[in-house]
Amino acid sequence: MDSSDSTSLRSREWAWALYDVATSSFATTVMAAFFPVFFKQFWARELPVTESTFWLGAVSSVGALVALVLAPVLGALSDAGGWKKPLLALCAFLGVAMTAGLFWIETGAWELALLLYGLGLVGFSTGMVFYDALLPTVTVPSRFEHVSAFGVGMGYLGGGALFAVNILMTQKPEWFGLPDVTAAVRMSFLMVAVWWFVFTLPLLLVVREPSARRASGSAVRAGLAQLRDTFKHVRRLKVVMLFLGAYWLYIDGVDTIVHMAVDYALAIGFDASGLMLALLITQVVGVPSTLAYGRLGQRFGAKASILVGLVTYALLVVWGSVMSRQWEFFGIAVGIGLVQGGVQAMSRALYARIIPKEKSGEFFGFFNLLSKFAAVLGPVLVGVVSYATGEPRLSILALLVLFGLGGALLWYVDVAEGERCASEL
């Protein structure tokens, strides 16, 4: 990549980061907030609660499984054919179309709503493979930490801004010319689709992928052959293997907190009305803290920054196990906002340093594959401890195992050796 033109370099970085703005709206407004609630209360309101929960969980799992299977394969194909941008566009527009489609689904049509949501999840999750893999294309190694953190921070800002508007729409639909809350939620889905589409365009128009296009048939054959080679390469790149093991453990802890924090708060008797506000607080705090994390990563290294984040997570888990007042939950939400985006961004930046640049799509396919496996072990640990002890407060302490083991493995990751091995592969 020619980095002599600093203006061109910065414009590529900005265009790349705006895709995080695009997808964060789906992650926050649709996945985390509105779809699960609206599915139960509108589309599947005739189903028993246990049945609607089953189907929602099943579709979420199937969507994650499809993305998990596709990630390394499409990553290899994108490297062989120079197809990162076209495949990202395909995934993004699939997600946009499915999310927009939710606006028109009528009450009772829960099967169709789940189908669109599941396909939207596939587009969202698979597209992130190519987005992450473009990081070495849009910037230089000395800026990996800063640019990765900038992307996550922009995502918090964009996703949080739209989420705040969507929450206000549900609280005051008449301010937006909407008749009721139902119309406000449906309009939110359409707004997310438009938002996702608009903020995808800069990456597609500005970022130039190195020309390595092959005919589709030869690219598929080369991609599959490259995928076979990657299994051999990963075994040879011991630093990469060690980091991926550490990443799987600690990101499982991070994602378990994301998925189960509200459920845990309800289990210990907190009022549900303020919990969505806590989610918004995490988004708001995440903007400046993630950008600051990028600066810390440049100065002290991504590895040290991740370790600080994991220690912070461990302290927050301990606090959560003894909290008794709702304001403490908001305090923990602030704490999570301080480190969540930074840990994610620094993990991506560190990984980009220790993998071969020309195989970034393929290797990031494995990176995102592990992300799909995240929040598998954590919920099991939490559930087993909760069932065995009958005490939710003890169950959350099980996450200390994930943060402790993940941090211990990360401690032994030799980044300099990883960079050397990647350059020789």
From TrEMBL:
Q: What is its main location?
A: membrane
Residues forming the Major facilitator superfamily (MFS) profile domain are: 238-425
The protein's organism comes out as Methylocaldum szegediense
List residues traversing the bilayer.
Answer: 16-39, 54-75, 87-106, 112-135, 147-169, 189-207, 239-262, 274-294, 306-323, 329-351, 363-388, 394-413
Tell me what topology the record assigns in the membrane.
Multi-pass membrane protein
Under the heading PROSITE patterns, the entry gives: MFS
> Where is the protein found, in the record's own terms?
Endomembrane system
Q: Does the keyword Plastid apply?
A: no
Q: Which domain of life is it from?
A: Bacteria
Keywords noted in UniProt: Membrane, Transmembrane, Transmembrane helix, Transport
The record, for InterPro entries, names: Atg22-like, ATG22/LtaA_families, MFS_dom, MFS_trans_sf
Is Transport included in the keywords of this UniProt record? yes
Could you tell me what this protein is called?
MFS transporter, UMF1 family
Supply the Pfam families for this chain. ATG22 (PF11700)
Query: What PANTHER family does this protein's entry cite?
Result: AUTOPHAGY-RELATED PROTEIN 22 (PTHR23519:SF1)
